Amino acid sequence: MNYLYVFAAAFLFSSMEVAIKFTGGAFNPVQLNFIRFLVAGILLYPISRKELSTLTYKLVKKDYLHFAFTGFLCIVVSMTFYTLSVSFLDAHVAGVLFCSNTFFSMLLAHFFTSEKMNRPMLFAVGLSFVGFLVLVNPAHFKGSLLGVVIVLISALSFSFYALVGKILYKDAPFKAPTITSRSFLFGVAELFILIMISRTAPVAGALKSAGLDVFANIPILSGIASDNILILLYISVFVTGLGFASHLFAVETNPVAVSSLVFFVKPVLSPIMAAIFLGDIIYKHEIFGIVLIAAASSLIIYEQHRREQKALAEK
């Protein structure tokens, strides 16, 4: 069941870039972030209420501060940069580069938690890194350098969000539904404040002067139409709501090495989905990169299974 959360999150996340492309640029990246996390947060809220009703625990100020912090890291920082990067890069390239958060997550866990990487896992991380390089093919990369920088900022902040969430909520009596819904709603509230600030004349003028038009006068609901409402609901309900809930369940119930497999599987699925639904061409070097990443993922699963069996034998 634990691996089911991993692969459910991987499948849903892998469809994100394709879904964004299907909106046809109808939405400002920050606006899209606001809508999808608002809808997902509202849908998950009743599940959170039900979970809390079964507990004797009552949320306190510390919990709300934690929700505000993780919501800021995930929604305001990571996901805003991520959605923006899809405007600069091909769908599958943005998806693959975002998955570099895997390296950051495992390295952060190695240095700041008890989950240390042994030699086989270090080798697997190195092999997957080579796979990512082969996939992107930097020697002949013709995409946007700015897009690469933006998506790497998103990846780093997302890995920090995952690690911080694992630490902050380690001993919390509530689990994924409450953490996800409350973090989403706090993050959306923070994003709403920034959106309203962007609509003030002095700030909008300064942003436009700096060439940051995308962050000026951010709309809230404009652009929603009959021809994009279904894809917007898919992004909000499935990719965002179910995808993030599955990812958080994976983080809760697995070591970082296993939960990070979400972003080892995504580089394999993202190019395939982009080829099927967008007509993107998958080149030979991309296929080779996918094979390397799949091999690294298999090694991590095997090594984690071996660790678990060894721990059981010692008990």
From TrEMBL:
Could you tell me which residue ranges the EamA domain spans? Answer: 3-136, 146-301
Asked whether the keyword Transmembrane is assigned, the reply is yes
InterPro entries per UniProt: AA-Vitamin_Transporters, EamA_dom, EmrE-like
Query: Keywords on this record?
Result: Cell membrane, Membrane, Transmembrane, Transmembrane helix
S-adenosyl-L-methionine among the record's keywords?
no
Chief location: membrane
**Which SUPFAM superfamilies does the UniProt entry name for this protein?**
Multidrug resistance efflux transporter EmrE
Q: How does it sit in the membrane?
A: Multi-pass membrane protein
Coiled coil ranges: none
Top-rank taxon, per record? Bacteria
- Spell out the subcellular localization from the entry: Cell membrane
Which positions, given as ranges, span the membrane? Answer: 67-85, 91-109, 121-139, 145-164, 184-207, 229-249, 256-279, 285-302
**Pfam families (alphabetical):** EamA
- Similarity comment: family membership: Belongs to the EamA transporter family.
The name this protein carries in UniProt is: DMT family transporter
